[in-house]
Amino acid sequence: MMDSSSHSGPLRATAARTFSHVEHWVFDLDNTLYPPACDLFGRIDEKMCDFIMRFLDVDEVEAKRVQKEFYVEHGTTLAGLMAVHGVEPQQFLAHVHNIDVSAVAPDAALGQAIAALPGRKVIFTNGSVAHAENVITQLGIGHVFEGIYDIVTTDYRPKPRREAYDRFIAASGIAPERAAMFEDLPRNLEVPHALGMKTVWVRPQGEVGPERFQRLSHEGGDAPHVHHVADNLTDFLKEIAP
Fold this sequence. Notes:
Layout: H1 10-18, E1 24-27, H2 40-56, H3 60-74, H4 77-85, H5 89-96, H6 108-115, E2 120-124, H7 129-139, E3 147-149, H8 162-172, E4 179-183, H9 190-195, E5 198-202, H10 211-216, E6 228-230, H11 233-240
Parallel strand pairs: 1-2, 1-4, 2-3, 4-5, 5-6
């Protein structure tokens, strides 16, 4: 694995050559394009809890238990709610993503670093297009992405399920053997590795939001399916740019 600590000269050239075949750049959204300190997950978590309390008519303690259990077992809380309780997904997504994203600071440097990469740049998220658009608009980087592929694209099959990636590839037309994927959760890079993508774990710095994310945010970070590690996404992208 390669850390994102700054390289120069031959080291930087080597890093760039590692990605010289890449034509498709795939970015996760939450805690990848913005730092966990923004705590958007915390706000979404509160909305999820509220939805579950109302839908299942349970108290907060039980709602949080359901959230954690479904996230771990099904990939997302929504996937579990759909499978076990028949929740209508659009209603859920509209509710939980109706949040204030002003904690996310504009990041022109990140936009420039992504724009400098050769080829297509897309977002692949377990969230919704509306949420992704809100976030990248706040970041000021919406113009650098060709498309957003969300949980609706994958027919509500979330990462890390294999079918989510298959549906994403079919919808986007990317070539996995010429693609790189950036993710904050190591487990979400296992399938991309198997498909032939370069994988980059954008390692979260500090707290990553609700308790159920704490373990998953680092579990598997040293596994073979994680090819590279970026502690700072902008710096890492500058290193690998041709």
